[in-house]
Amino acid sequence: MAADGTEYDLTQIIAPYLDRHMVLRLVEFLEEQKLYPMEEILAAKLDVIGKTKMADLKLKEHRLALETAKKNNVEGAEKKFEEAEKLIKSEKSKIVSEYKKTSPLTKPLVDKFVKSGLEQPGTEPEKIAQFKKDHMIDEDSLKTLYEFSRLTFDMGFYGDSLDLLSVYRIISEDDETTYLAQWGKLAAGILLMEGDGNNAEHVAEVIEDINQLRDMISRRNHIPQLKQLMQRSWLINWSLFAYTVSTSLSADLVKFLLQERIINAIQIQCPYILRYLVAALMISYDQSKVHLKQAMDILDMERDHYRDPLTEFMRALLIEYDFENAHLQLVECEKVFSVDFFLNKKDLREAFFTNSRHLMFELYCRIHKRIDISLLAQRLHLDEKDTDKALVDLIRSAPFEGKIDSKKNQLVISTQYPSIYQKVIDKTKGLAHRTQQIADAINKRMQSKMHVMDS
Predict the structure, then answer these.
(1) DSSP letter assigned to residue 405
(2) Max CA-CA distance within the chain?
(3) Rounded CA gap, 46 and 88, in Å?
(4) Of 113, 121, 155, 263, which is least surrounded by CB within 10 A?
(5) pTM score of the predicted model
(6) What is the per-residue pLDDT across 30-80, written as a single tens digit (0 to 9) for each?
(7) What letter does residue 250 receive in the DSSP assignment?
(8) DSSP secondary structure code for residue 34 in this structure
(9) pLDDT digits (tens, 9 = 90+) for 375-409
(10) How many Å separate Cα 439 from the centre of its chain?
């Protein structure tokens, strides 16, 4: 039997948009959470790493598969493992030979390039051209550098691959392979991120690569629109690795996902990304509530194409004002966070549920003047022992006054009317951001047209 909550697992849906090495991270998460039987997990891992060049990992996983098969008394498991082991060892020998042959041709070149300081932004093209001339770097040298970067990536040496691709992007004049190198650099950067101990500078660099790729995709008007849409969809899925690292990036994720071309790709190709839009919106509610109406319009429009407890919670609360259903969906959201690779982080979970309860409390109190505390505690999914303390904290942070009537076990809300000035401020709060979005879109289209004319 699968563990509770697996109906909300998106791994199989997201996997086609990810590199195999990224999918492996998701499968390892499922293994840690014990969401599926071990046999299924091992089969998935062997399938994912089958086309990589991580020979040692292949051997390790095949041995685990053999042990599991023996426990289940599977006939012929030993023979099957011996055949696989023989093939993997032969494959490893070829991979190591290729690595040893190519490494001396590329690593010294990369080291010299880095020491020269030419990888810094804004380096004059003349200096790069002179470096290529001094070190006799021709098309064959660049091809070797590019292929070696792919080899190191496939072997799981992401740091080496990142260094190689960083140099290749600068010294190559081939637009197509430079574009592919940008994808490789982003993939390596993502795979070098590890849990909560991520270096802020490295994450910022990964996000910069995401933005560069977004712009590069938009400029590729020579490719079919369907292919452009697919590449944008890959980028959206890859971006989740960076933007869900911590709560501090949630507001940026909201802005990224609500860009016109990005949200169009989401609606057409990958509507399940709306889960992460809702999560980021609630996690960064104070900074992102200016985008609430736009997000809710999209959720309402896309309900027939995608829904889960997060999207249904927002609909129930902000469109239907159905507090009972909102409470039920918020309880289900716990399951979503427990099975989702990108959301299963303590700080994201705490921020989401804290802000969700604050928003429910605020809306409920705007509608009712006197509220039964037991009912309110149930609606907000509060612990009965800490209800009074939690309510005091909620009242302090709410934009209205309230007091607890202990005799009647009620919360009494004081009626307050917002000033006309505050209404004007609230109505116009998002104008500056929307204007900037329109200006940016116009500038990008103008730049795209100029790029086409120049070419």
Answers:
(1) E
(2) 88
(3) 12
(4) 121
(5) 0.83
(6) 999 998 998 899 999 999 999 999 999 999 998 888 888 888 777 777 888
(7) H
(8) T
(9) 666 666 666 566 666 666 666 666 555 666 666 66
(10) 27
**In the block, residue with structure tokens 């020269």:** 116
Residue in this structure with the two tokens 């960076």, named with its chain if needed: 242
Give tens-digit pLDDT for 69-95: 888 777 777 888 888 889 999 999 999
State the CB neighbour count (10 A cutoff) for residue 122: 4
Token pair listed for 6: 């697996």
DSSP assignment of 409-446: TEEEEPP----HHHHHHHHHTTHHHHHHHHHHHHHHHH
CB 221 within 8 A of CB 452: yes
**Quick one: tokens of 312?**
């249904």
Cα pseudo-dihedral 27, 32, 36, 41, rounded to 10: 40
Distances 18 to 22, 238, 262, 453 between C-alpha atoms, Å: 6, 7, 17, 34
Q: Which of 297, 294, 240 minimizes the C-alpha distance to 430?
A: 294
| Region at 322 (left for phi over 0; alpha for psi -120 to 50; beta for the rest) | beta
Which residue's entry shows tokens 């990536």? 153
Rounded CA gap, 379 and 395, in Å?
A: 16
Closest CA to 59 of 73, 45, 69: 45
The whole-angstrom separation of Cα 455 and Cα 451 is: 6
By CB atoms closer than 10 A (0-12, 13-18, 19+), residue 92 is middle
